[in-house]
Amino acid sequence: TERRHRHSGQGARRTALLGVLARAGIANRFAHVLDHGGDRGQMVVPGGGLDVDRPAVFEVSGVTPEPGVEAIDPPELHARPWDLILSCHVLEHVSDPAGYMADLVGLGRAGSLFFIEVPNERYASPAFNGSAVQKAWLSWVAGTGALFKVLDFLSTGLRVKLGLVPPFGFVALREHLQILTVKGLKAFLAKFILEILACEIAETGHIVALA
Question: What's the half-sphere exposure (Cβ side, CA atoms, 13 Å) at 159?
Fold first, then answer.
């Protein structure tokens, strides 16, 4: 399910990337581009719009990359002078986002560009967020079995369809460990040695940032 989500509408997502680059005044011409955690490298595939001499992808799943995209092994990550590093729909999955981003920034050099894409998961929640009441309630309901499953189903369904987590509901962290807003992503990136050139909701509905 997550792979279908990440790689649906690839053409629109590549167009959104090109638009962000253009608005930032960055020429679409790169020697070395890395799609970090990019599955088969669909975002940097030759003929997809990005003008790259040597497109590459780093993907731990071991899937075969798209024709014309080079698979990069961990020892090679620091060996290339990356002009542009993409991280698309990865940040929301990692348990240590600061550590992940520090490692990603460490792959770059002076002048390297970073393109970050995450879901725009907006919802309202009157569910006593972060309070002692919520923690006690969740601790109890997690051991109830059937009631927990019902609340999980209702919470997920209402959040996806209506953008609302009901009172006494919760957001289940099955795949997305981080839920980011434009403001939150901008504040997160500002903690690193990066100049933020753009951070916005793209026409695809996802949040994108260029730094």
Answer: 22
Whether pTM > 0.90 for this model: the answer is no
Q: Which DSSP helix (H) or strand (E) runs through 152?
A: helix 146-162
DSSP structure class, residue 80: S
Cα(9)–Cα(5) distance, rounded to whole angstroms? Answer: 9
**Residue 141 contacts by C-beta under 8 Å, 6 or more apart in sequence?**
147, 148, 151, 168
> Which residue type does 160 have?
V
Alpha helices in 24-131 (DSSP H): 97-106
Segment holding 117, helix H or strand E? strand 113-118
Rounded to whole angstroms, the Cα distance separating 209 from 211 reads 7
Q: What is the pLDDT of residues 130-171, one digit of tens each?
A: 788 888 988 998 889 889 898 888 887 887 788 787 888 877
DSSP letter assigned to residue 184? H
